[in-house]
């Protein structure tokens, strides 16, 4: 079985982008009028330099590079609500310069002066800001609470528009499930998740749909704040690969979180694969020299036992790596498959390019380019993982882990050039 790299000439890349843009504006191709820009409301925790809202909002306002060419979304940022305004807030200055309105309530972000729902989509970007943590070291971001404010507007208006939720749906698995149920009840498209599944991969690896993946592992290393923050990205990275396995996603049986020597013992006992770890580290450009056991002072792991017998693991190895890489074991194949998920650093943080591209597709069609059930499952696994870590590192089970879905044929990750000069 081979996994070839994608290679496309710049001209063809540009042509494909142009064709996509034409298709989106498309029904008006024969008319004289310009395509209609979609109006977007942003509801954020905070809008400051390097915040997630900053990175996504700037791309709506100014565009971004896509496969070596500058791309301007057919979007207009209409209004913005921020839950917090620190001293380094940028929203008011950007609003004055770039022509959007900063409002006082979430409802005002969605409504015209006459009280009508006049936006085509909502971006709920609640990441960063001054929020407390609970006993499970989970940041109490008010994603659920702000989502409920959006829903109130939809119910009062008698109609709804697509909603994107940045990162996990909620730190609380039950609330995450309620959010998905609400979107289905009201009939609006819901998209969520990390930028990791749609950033560049080196080498470019898209496991064929229906591949017989039996085990997967993600190695990463981050210590900036509560471990929950980056474990979510690791679980999304793991899931976007394992969901392509034969039979589709049939849910998870149990979740176990480990810390310290228990992580190494679990590897020695075969609960995760040392072979896959070495393959993942070998793809990672940030991989440290020396033995991983000697380097890493306090390893952490979340082990995922899937309902169909597939195994997954995410390992936080702070002193060994600082980026994300994946390795997987395929039936009847001796060598693991593996790839590195590329994260160009701030201030540009260009891994948001792929996420914004997929958000654009979502806003245009009203249907998420990949199932929200992926992030529903990773949100649930993360919640149980954090609870397992604080409850004696015991395996935890829950009916909420019974999340089933089929992945799209194309996961939508960024391919080809990363800069205009590649």
Lay out the secondary structure:
Elements: H1 10-25, E1 38-44, H2 52-62, E2 64-66, E3 69-71, E4 75-82, H3 91-98, E5 101-103, H4 106-110, E6 121-125, H5 143-157, E7 163-166, H6 173-186, E8 190-193, E9 201-202, E10 213-220, H7 228-242, E11 252-259, H8 261-268, H9 274-283, H10 292-295, E12 300-306, E13 311-316, E14 324-330, E15 337-341, H11 352-365, H12 372-390
Parallel strand pairs: 1-4, 1-6, 4-5, 6-7, 7-8, 10-13
Antiparallel strand pairs: 2-3, 9-15, 10-14, 11-12, 12-13, 14-15
Helix pairs in contact: 5-6, 6-12, 7-12
Could you name the key traits of this structure?
single chain, 422 residues, alpha/beta, Rossmann fold, Dihydrodipicolinate Reductase, domain 2, seven-stranded mixed sheet, six-stranded parallel sheet, 12 helices
CATH-derived architecture of the largest domain: 3-Layer(aba) Sandwich
Main sheet record = 7 strands, mixed
SS strand fraction: 15-25%
pLDDT < 50 runs, ≥5 residues: 1-31
Number of DSSP helical runs: 12
Number of strands: 15
Instruction: Kindly give the count of domains.
Output: 2
SSE-based structural type: alpha/beta
CATH fold-type name of the largest domain: Rossmann fold
- What's the CATH class label of the largest domain? Alpha Beta
Shape: globular
SSE succession: HEHEEEHEHEHEHEEEHEHHHEEEEHH
Indicate the percent of residues in helices: 25-40%
Ends distance: 29 Å
Give the full name of the CATH homologous superfamily of the largest domain. NAD(P)-binding Rossmann-like Domain
| Strand order, sheet with most strands | 9-15-14-10-13-12-11
Radius of gyration: 21 Å
